[in-house]
Structures are given as C-alpha cells and as structure tokens.
Amino acid sequence: MTSTSLEKHHSAARELLHELQLTEVEQIRAKVSGHGSSLPLVAKNSAGRTFLLKYYVPPAPDKILPAGVHTNNYSRRETGFYRLLDSIDPERREFPAPRTIAVGPGDPAPWMLLEWLPSAPGPAEEVISQEHVIHLLEKTNSMPTERLMGRRGFPLEHWDPVGYLDRIRNMYDAVLFSIGEARWRNLQRFFSEAVRWTDGRPHVMVHGDFQEQNIIVTEDDRAFMVDFECVGIGNRDHDFAWYWLHSDRHPEWKRNLLHRWLYDQVGGDRIRAEWGIRCAIAYIATRRLRWGYLNHGDEDPRLSANLALLDAALEGGTALFPM
C-alpha cells in the first residue's frame, strides 16, 4: 500500500472517528494486520475510555494474496466471528478476545470498534510465556465447531490436510520452478499419507494467524487473541505449527514448547499430532516458496532455507522434531 493511499484511508478512518465522537490517540499505535487488510486506530471518548477501531481497506493492486483468497474475506470472517462471540459470549467470560463495541453497516462491514486491551510493558519474550501460548491454544481447540459452521455469509477457512493440498495445487505454476517435478510428486504423496493419518480427527476452531503479534497479555497477566481475519476450522495442530515456525524465540524455548504440546500424546495420537504439525509446516513452506518466486523469481534469497524447511517437514523425525 502506497503512502498516498494509506493517508487517504487514514483520513477516512479519522472522519469515522469524528462521527463516532471519538478522538484518535496518536501516541498509541496499534499493531497493523499482517495481511494489510485493516487500518487499526486507537481512540478515546469524552469520558476517557479507550477503544480500537479496525478500519478495513482494500489491498494494494500489486499485493500478492494467498492462492484462492478473495479480498473481502478477511473483513467478512473477522466481523462474522465477533458477531458469533457476541451471541454466545458477549462479556468474553469464556473466550479470550476483546469485547465488541460496534460493527459498521453492510456486508462485509467496513469497520469494527472493539474494546482496547493495553499490553503489559516489556518485550514479548518477557510478557508472553509458554503458559499463555498453551492456554490460548487450548481455548481455540475447545470451542465447539458447530457454532462456527453453517453460518450464513461466514467464509470459514479450512486449515486441514485436504485444505492445504487444495491451496498447494493452486500454487503449482509458481512453485514448480522452485521445487522441481520430483519434489512436487513427493509433496503430493506426502499429503496423501497425511490425509490417511489425520482422517477422522475431529476438527477444531483454528485462529489461522496465531503468532506473537496477535497475542496480548495485559498487566494483570490475562492473555487474549486478536486479529481473526483467517479464522476457520480444521487441524488442531495448525495454530501450534504456525506459532512455532514464526517465533523468534531461543531454540531451547521452542523445544520445550514443542514437548509441552506433545507431552500427553502417546501411541497413535502422537503420530497423528506429528503428522498434523508436519503437514501444516509443509503447507507454510510451500506458500513461502510461491511468494518468494512471485516476488524475486530465481533470485529468491530465502529459497534454500524454505526448501530445507519443506524437506524437513516431508521427512519428519529428528529433521523436524528435536529430541
């Protein structure tokens, strides 16, 4: 998004704040959506209460979106999810997300006003603990999926091996030049085996973009999730794999987190959990390769690293799961 278009959207968002009788707090900067699909502004009312405005914006014309993604789906998913929470848990006593103040008109809604959750001061390494991460993962896994499914106009993402494979097939033209025919055939065989091992596992709610920038821990040590633009159902290990792969923590910290996630999985359950993590990482690595090729062509600086990640996911064992 260019600076000109960003300023245009920012001006429109400020006008909306004025209509809502709110004033932007320029000293507080909210985290921008990783997809660039929303502009977050912190604002106060006359009584001093603080809110977060999520103002949805169209992606820049040159922005590369995931295969099969429609530009309105991010806002439609997130506002639909908050409407669901408002119907089943309006005070957020069960699910750790901000409370909804107002949702804009139309479908998809052009904006949403949320409770502002100030994060505890300090770097993420000090504020967000393994206990917080595991707690939030358990919360998503425990939400009944029937509450998500069948809702009119709610475009759920499907984060499971079948869903991964559908996306990967849409990436064929871009990734084939990076991975070659032999690795492509191996990738197809891998997902056929992954479906066999994970078939029958109950689907759970999946955040879809679970990483530290979307976790807020307040000063009273309560952990919350934000940014539900990719929410869906599917593989219970998807959010863990997404967090584990995107985390910059020390390898020993990540190794301990992996052991905590798998500690009560034994026998066939352990094998299925490892397959769940492996196929999520294989999907992420393939997606990175697609973006790298579309952005850099044969000069992708991360090509070797992402090929190594893909190969580790396909191989499994100690190549991916350190002992």
How are the secondary structure elements laid out?
Elements: H1 3-19, E1 23-24, E2 38-44, E3 50-56, H2 73-88, E4 100-103, E5 111-115, H3 124-127, H4 130-142, E6 157-159, H5 161-170, H6 172-198, E7 204-206, E8 215-217, E9 223-225, E10 232-234, H7 238-246, H8 251-262, H9 267-296, H10 303-315
Parallel strand pairs: 6-10
Antiparallel strand pairs: 1-2, 2-3, 3-5, 4-5, 7-10, 8-9
Explain how this protein is built.
The chain has 323 residues and is of the alpha+beta class. It has two domains: 3-116, Phosphorylase Kinase, domain 1 (2-Layer Sandwich); 157-319, Aminoglycoside 3'-phosphotransferase, Chain: A, domain 2 (Alpha-Beta Complex). It contains ten helices and ten strands. It has helices spanning 3-19, 73-88, 124-127, 130-142, 161-170, 172-198, 238-246, 251-262, 267-296, 303-315; strands spanning 23-24, 38-44, 50-56, 100-103, 111-115, 157-159, 204-206, 215-217, 223-225, 232-234. The strands form three sheets. The chain has a five-stranded antiparallel β-sheet, with helices on both faces. A three-stranded mixed β-sheet has the order 6-10-7. A hairpin with a 5-residue loop joins strand 8 and strand 9. The termini are far apart. 35% of the residues are buried. The mean pLDDT is 91.
